Amino acid sequence: MIDVLIDGLSWACLLAGGVFCSIGALGLLRMPEFYTRLHAASVTDTLGAGLVLLGLILQAGLTLVAVKLVIIGLLLFFTGPVAAHALAKAALNRGLKPLLAEADAESLATETSPAPTPDDRPLSPAVEGAPSKP
Amino acid sequence: MRNDMVLRVVGKLLIPFILMFALYVQFHGDFGPGGGFQAGTIVAAAIIFYAIIYGLNTARRVLPDWVVESMIAIGVLLYIGVGFAGLLLGGNFLDYFVLDSDPVVGQHRGIFWIELGVAITVFGVLLKIFYLFARRGPN
Fold it and tell me: So what's the ipTM on this one?
């Protein structure tokens, strides 16, 4: 009975981990730019690998293999976010702007630019720009 | 990178464990996956990690060039020494079983020293290659 329960739980963890890894891979391929791709890849690191390792630990039981898997999990837990941080920081230091920052800058530019040319849209930029500011 | 606190803290946290894992790979190589080549690579990776975070000059103060270069030679000499020890004790070159009265113990002893020599040489060569590449300027 308890074996079936543990097996079911372990398979659920393995399947969920696989799904998260697939989502991470899909995000890595389909996201528009570097930072969002990095975000998608870090999902694979934390949830995907963590759940797969948890399923394998449940399969291994209380053995030396389980201890080794826990150590691998700790390694991923510490190194994955640090790698993502280093990549993001290096990209930011080299001047790669996030896509949303450019969009923010453009919207700021369109909010401030209507002052010299007020003829095109007399009221709408100010009205539309105000609620989207926060 | 010298002022990046996250990397420095994680480097301090990880490097001792990387070195310990290298020792595990080294001495567990008789019974499982691993051995001298892998252990030397892991130690070199730890030092390269250190050099990337704390700067090349700091790493070259910790492990100066003459230490690295002599490690290359010491490993090869250890390997050849084990070979000639077998020769002197009445076997062929690199015969392990003559190294002790019990042949199995002799095999273990010979593999231990051979793997140690391999690890030292691989570590020295990899670190020397890294130093040479990293020292070059952008031109």
Answer: 0.70
